[in-house]
Amino acid sequence: MTGRAARATLLSVVLAVVLVGGVVLSAVTGQLPISPGEVVGSVLRAVGIQNDWAPDDRIVESTLWVVRFPRVAMALAVGAALAVAGAVMQAIFGNPLAEPGVVGVSAGGAFGASIAIVFGLTALGTGTVAVFAFAGGLAATLLVYFVSRSNGRTEVVTLLLTGIAVNAFAGAGLAFLIFVADSGSREQIVFWQLGSLNGSLWPEAAIVATVTVIGTIVAVTLGRRYDLLALGERNARHLGVNVEALRIGSIVLVALLTGVAVAFCGIIAFVGLVVPHVIRMAIGPGHRALLIASAVGGGALMVLSDLLARSLVAGSDLPIGLLTSLIGGPFFFYLLFRQRSKSGGWA
Amino acid sequence: MIRADRVGVDLSGTTVLDDVTIEVIRGEVLALVGPNGAGKSTLLGVLSGEHPPSRGSVTIDGRPIARIRSGELAKLRSVLTQENTVSFPFLVSEVVAMGRSPWARSEESRDDLAEVTAALGAADITHLADRRYTQLSGGEKARVAFARVLAQRTPVIFLDEPTAALDLRHQEDVMREARRLATNGAAVVVVLHDLSLASAYADRLALVAGGRLEAVGTPADVLTQQRVERVYGVRVHLHEVGGRPVVVPVRSAT
């Protein structure tokens, strides 16, 4: 117990340092170098504290507030949304390998978004693409859930095979849409498939942040029930959990969090796999602490990944989905390998 | 306390339980015995409110069990299932503390720590409290699950083959604990395969065979040589130890 408590404190400190460090680093890095002092000064001035550090240059000021800060805010929100969605998904599948990207929820969301783009649907206003992304994500989650579960648990093999099927189907749909689309829509779809935080705006970041905050709060309040679900569906029911309601609610939650992230930033895979896993190793599987720490850790990881994505190759903006998959792929393989050697098979 | 009246269960066209009337009484250990596939676990599921019966009724203190919300039911009865896997590496103490969850935000929750400590002691797993559940042996896992059920502190306790994975001493420990719970006023229903163990600790035996209740009563009444041989299809010797029947199969000397 004390070991875990000590590690929880350590983790909080590490996360706080990484988060603040990542945000400041993101703000100072770019084509226009800005000093950390100017960043802090500008933020302080914005909240009404006059100080000498604040930049006088209008260009510096607008670079911070129009380009870099919205992008950082978006990174934080998207990272948190994906990590929380991953942790919730793992809880309801009873399997640490469940992840929105792996099982095809993100692909479903991208497919939904692409339909709206290609056919120029605007029936629901500017949010149409986001609504379609959510619907696609929800459909994919429901499909995976009902196909791959049996007796309250999901075998690794079934989960992965279902993921392959859903990804293949969504991939075919995307390919068809790319085929019929005009070149403008085509570019947008490719952007969706690769994932990027480029060109994030305040209103978009605000939408994602709102959904993320609400979704995280809901997930944390359900945390105790997710703990009980780890005992298996029957035992959870014997302990008074309304398992069916919890499952359906959680599926909607996962689709919402993933859908909103995909709608604005495209497919960014493996965040929901890596972050909860690392946190579980550090502080144990208790879901309330896990979900809160995953939200913070997801945000921190995404800020750092985005920083890498836009500074790794000078003058160009790498797709962030490429980067997370580059790290997440081998990590996923390592998890699979470990689970196989532990249980003596792929079951 | 819990009463099943003429219940029957059909599963995909086959009748697995038919016309069973039985009552679970406070202060008593009731053992469900019978051959594999006889319907013991199904009966346990019906009595605990997990399976709604296809026919007949189940009531708890006169109220239909199906109408009781799962949150309230969790304060009335606990269930030890045969399979107890845990998806994530929770600590043993955390798993046992989950047994307290039905009492969250109630007055009883102030006893949480004491109940968990007592349950760890009763199941002889205090020394495992800080270990990860996923690293335990089968028998240790079974005792952790038993402790979780004890921590739930319900007036009715269902145990589905609680001794299956346990060594001799822990089998006795579990049954003694079940006995103690009944003496303190709980109703304990336990599915057992070992007829001698059931006979030694139960107030009443219910012998289930072919989905029907073959006999209910004291161990001496139920376990007659003729009945056991007919139901199990094996020749047995019946001995008596401490006033209770002990069943030993006839084994040809080799």
In words, what does this structure look like?
The complex is a heterodimer of chains A (347) and B (254). With 347 residues, chain A is mostly helical. Chain A has one domain: ABC transporter involved in vitamin B12 uptake, BtuC. In chain A, 76% of the residues lie in helices and 0% in strands. Chain A contains 14 helices and no strands. In chain A, α3 packs parallel to α8 and α3 (58-93) crosses α12. Chain A starts with a helix and ends with a helix. The mean pLDDT of chain A is 87. With 254 residues, chain B is of the alpha/beta class. Chain B has one domain: Rossmann fold, CATH 3.40.50.300. Chain B has helices at 40-47, 70-76, 92-98, 112-122, 138-152, 168-183, 195-201, 219-222, 225-232, and strands spanning 2-11, 14-24, 28-33, 55-60, 63-64, 77-80, 156-160, 187-191, 204-209, 212-217, 236-241, 244-249. A six-stranded mixed beta sheet of chain B has the order 6-7-8-3-9-10, with helices on both faces. Chain B has a four-stranded antiparallel beta sheet with strand order 2-1-4-5. Chain B has a two-stranded antiparallel sheet with strand order 11-12. In chain B, β1 (2-11) and β2 (14-24) form a beta hairpin. Chain B is globular, with a radius of gyration of 18 Å. The model of chain B has no long low-confidence stretch (mean pLDDT 94).
